[in-house]
Give the backbone structure.
Amino acid sequence: MSYALELRDVRKSFGKTEIIRGASLGVNAGERVAIIGPNGAGKSTLFNLISGRFGITSGDILLHGQSLAGLSPFQINRRGLSRSFQVSNLFIRLSVFENIRCAVLWSMGYKYSFWKFLADMRDANERAEEVLQMIKLERRRDVLATNLTYAEQRALEIGITIAGGASVILLDEPTAGMSKSETARFVNLIREVTVGKTLLTVEHDMGVVFGLADKIAVLVYGEVIAFDEPAAVRANQRVQEAYLGSVLADAQAAEAGH
Amino acid sequence: MTSIHESRLHQHFRRYNGGRWVVWGLYALVLAVSPLVFTSSLSLTMLSQIGIGIIACLAFNMLLGQGGMLSFGHAVYSGLGSFFAIHALNLVAAGKFNIPVSLVPLVGGAAGLLFAVLLGYVTTKKAGTPFAMITLGVGELVAAMALMFPGFFGGEGGINGNRVIGKAVLGISFGPQGQLYYLIAVYCFVCTALMFAFTRTPLGRMLNAVRDNPERVEFIGYSTQHVRYLAFMASGLFMGIAGGLGALNFEIVTSEVVGAARSGAYLLFTFLGGAVFFFGPIIGAVLMVLALVLLSELTQAWLLYLGLWFLFMVMYAPGGISSLIMMNLRLASFGKLSRLWTAYLALAGLAFVILVGAAAMIEMVYHLQLNQALGPEMKFMGATLNAKGFDSWFGAAFVLLTGLAMFELTRREFVRQWSVIQVEIEHEIKQREALA
């Protein structure tokens, strides 16, 4: 059986500096994977490579068994992989509804058509309304994206990512900058909207990681040093060394304290 | 501040779509009735040019306002449309090409489209500043070509044509300016409607998305380059139609029509009218013809006045006149416009005082530079000024400075009132949202 997403010895250099140094990973369909690692480990770079923002230097990335090498972001998106951004990346002068509808159009087959009115596209409009409800922004439907609160913008960011119905979803620090209560609500939202999808997320908040992920991949200096279920990763000696009593140990200590 | 106002504005006006048929009906009515109200031959000429200008400015704004693409060389597409249309007209006259004169503008449109396909492919490979640079380069290239190939472009004299061909059909020969005006008006209405329809289609919406955030567009399945290219072609088509109508209107096409000055005029007046709203360029086109035809008759320094006006608009009202209108309509819809009319009256009066002071000085400088032979005495708004006398200069400077000082004081008070009203409106909106 082929993986939903597979990385084979992926390498990426910027100039002489190798940022990703032979990362390999195989994610099964329907799995939720959290990618963790110290700052500068290359987590965001890895996402940029998978989504086609940067080209890889060597190795291969496969989506449902097909190589993504050399494809542009929009071609990769059309094959069913969608990503969100760490800093909200919205269409700021369009309304919330229009933002979502833009994200729906290609997957509904409307492409570059200029002979049909948007208002008449019932399937696209219904899908957009449905996504609005999923991300709980239906009451903000006609507000311009630039006028949303921070948490609402993060929700819209997720909405745009999932609207096209991609089977593999990449979320780059979806809860960054949110308060504790917002984060808890947001984790639930992410779980709801990604039912049945393959999910990869970069996350710093260990609460989110353990709450959301079936599996954890630990990225250190551009290499995946562990990829397993949360309990096994927690017990992993190399992982503990890599973190040197930092994030993960803190989380463990906090948990032991309960 | 302005951008927040504008964005709120958008939201607000999206809700009032019921009146759309009324607006389009009024637009058709104005196009139809104008020549009956303004009957002089000068006004008929100007109305014809306005109709052509509206198509051109709206087509230009497909790129500027809707796609965030700043073109410095868009006269290329209207201009080449003009040349192909006038050649087509001459072929028809010679009996070598058989189409009605009323369809000759479509030949211009086809030429505009063809060159947008060819040149746009290179241009739209880039966005932002590189895009603007390439349009500038292409514009210079075509302008240079126009002088290198006199066979096609007619050299300095241009190409002449005659729009009256054969017998009149149903009394229509397009000879009289009035008949041609109605042809232009029909094209103008249809093209406006088509360009508005374009904004309601998937491609039109994705063009907005490319303007707002090209990077994200690539991650929702669309190629930004492709979106830009298609929009560029659509723009080129309508620019070409405008050019074709221009050829019929003037019956002569010279190399100026592809020149940088023409491109600059499209940019300047589209901006003055306002690129944010669809109807902005329509206002821009009206201003363009008024400035090019009337203002240039009124004073030799018209380009200087135009430049100053442009400068002030960029600084204080970057959304153009259409944005100013919409902001005040928003106030009116909340019943708060009446509180500002005294301030507007004062601002308008003082702006006029500033204009008088500044214009007196500008006109004196121009008089000294250009009309030396006539002596230092000159007429200005009914008064006689001595361009070399201390009194005239002192008087003009006094009027200008007093006007500026008073204007600034009034403006501060106005800005204060304006923000108070905006806060009130925001408050009302919040209340309504809470109730909804």
User: Anything to note?
Assistant: Residues 150-163 of chain A form the longest helix (14 residues). Chain A touches chain B through 43 residues (CB under 8 Å).
